[in-house]
Amino acid sequence: MSKAKSEKKQREPLSSYSILFIIIIVVGLATVVCSFITPSVTAASLPQILDSSVEGLIDAAEISFFLLILGGCLGMVTKIGALDAGITALVRKMHGHELLLIPIIMAIFALLGSSYGFCEEAVPFYALLSLTMVAAGFDTMVAVGTVLLGAGVGCLGSTVNPFANGVAIDTLKTAGIEADPGTTIVLGLVLLAAAYALAVFFVMRYARKVKADKGSTILSLQEQHAMEQAFGTEAQEGEEAQEGEATPAMTRTQGVALALFGLSFLVMIVGFIPWQNFGVDFFTLGGVPGEDGSWAVLPWSAWITGAPLGEWYFKDASVWFLIMSIVIGVVARMSERQIVNAWIDGAADMVGVALVVGLARAISILMASTHLDVMILDNASQLLAGSSAIVFAPVCYLIFLGLSFIITSTSALATLSMPIMGSLAASLGFSPDVMVMIFVAANGLANLFSPTAAFLPGLMMAKVEYSTWLKWALVPIIVIGVASVVVLTAAMMVL
Which residues cross the membrane (predicted)? Predict the structure, then answer.
């Protein structure tokens, strides 16, 4: 490597915090400019721009605290040595077949994303998959691609996701427009299959290259160093296991702790899936609604957090992981001081991640308070009036893609945009079913590259810079986006 190239590699990119602060300032300035053009936009004052970052942190407090508590639980398991032992055992078992981990894990994440919008909930898996993938001979970009593209294409091809399809269809219904859930499910499955196949192809192609030659990694020297510091011990142990060298066997205590940690994630996932939307009432059995809408007698699955499985949000998950942290510590026979210190150390590692979540929320808060988002939608609808299906579908996709870049909440964007864009589609004689899926697919693609999306904390956990992810993911994102537009345009022309 030449000296010039080495110096270029070592140049530090902007941090996630700086990127988000720059976007907040740009949005604030945009509201000032737009306020001179149209009275529908209110110019953001300097206090509004400055306050938005704090308001975002407050608005995202539930998710941020969940990440801190999860970090504490992860710190407990790491202190016990259960993760190291478990990953070493997994790599030994998968020796020669490590690539199979990628499509299997991506399929699981894709199904979760398609069914209930598994996105923010995927953040903890970036660190876990980084440990596993590095130990298996890959790098952290393989881990990031596996998690982000896996969950991302699932959201892009949502079928019964209540936070995307459900809110969009319900919002259209409120506006007097009926959308057929059956059609959206079929379109979602087509999008999911196409996007999943493309995502697996790109991740596995890169993984094979890195596995064969570590020098082919796209990570910068700083990122490689950070990866080695964070996950190098596991990688070394994994290589020793592959070479058949002696490695300490997992103890019974470590095995139990790891099983409890895995159970914690499983229960969390089950808790987030809206089972009642699928006609499953098993988790609400035993509950008797009170007159004020609360449960006079709690369902059996609500005894711990107060909410039955299927109705959880991050507060409930926080309570669950806090309890499991204590259980794991007791099982490992740790003293009270050891439990507290290990938990605090783990939570401390998540502080930066938790702050990023709040800063990302600030952007959508600033847009909503100044009505910049409504102005963009109104102008977009006027632009599309009278267009043909072959123009209407791709342009709508780009509009939703741009809005999703800065409005982080899928349900909020659906509530805001579908009455305007859905009514426009209906007036032009286009299918509202396809319009719903254009929104869903564009929003899902934006989740793969927008700095305001949920994956930025995951990148930090995996020690991958945002600029590096964009450099690697640019081609897969474009290809998946083009494939989605082709499917949706064809559907708009036929239906």
Answer: 20-43, 63-87, 99-118, 124-142, 147-164, 184-204, 256-275, 317-335, 347-369, 389-416, 428-449, 469-494
Evaluate whether residue 37 is within a structural domain.
Answer: no
Considering only CA atoms, give the Rg of the chain.
Answer: 23
Which are the contacts of 399, defined by CB distance < 8 A and separation ≥ 6? 376, 377, 380, 421, 442
Does residue 436 lie within any of the structural domains?
Answer: yes
Residue 67 lies in a domain: yes
What are the pLDDT digits (tens) for 32-81? Answer: 999 998 888 899 999 988 888 888 888 878 878 887 888 888 888 878 87
pLDDT tier at 294 (50, 70, 90 boundaries)? Answer: low
Any domain includes 285: no
- Retrieve residue 411's tokens: 């349900």
Q: What is the pLDDT of residue 2?
A: 46
Phi, psi at residue 98, to the nearest 5°? -60, -30
pTM of the model: 0.70
* Nearest-angstrom CA–CA distance, 52 and 361: 9
Q: Parallel, antiparallel, or unpaired for β 295-297 and 288-289? A: antiparallel
Cα angle at 135 between 132 and 137, to 5 degrees?
Answer: 115
Residue 310: which region, alpha, beta or left (left: phi > 0; alpha: psi -120 to 50)?
left
- 338 within 8 A of 60, measured Cβ to Cβ: no
Helix boundaries (H) for 136-244: 140-156, 167-174, 181-212, 221-242
The total of structural domains in the chain comes to 1
Residue of 295 and 288 predicted with greater confidence: 288
Phi, psi of 15 (to 5 degrees): -75, 165
Token pair listed for 240: 């020793």
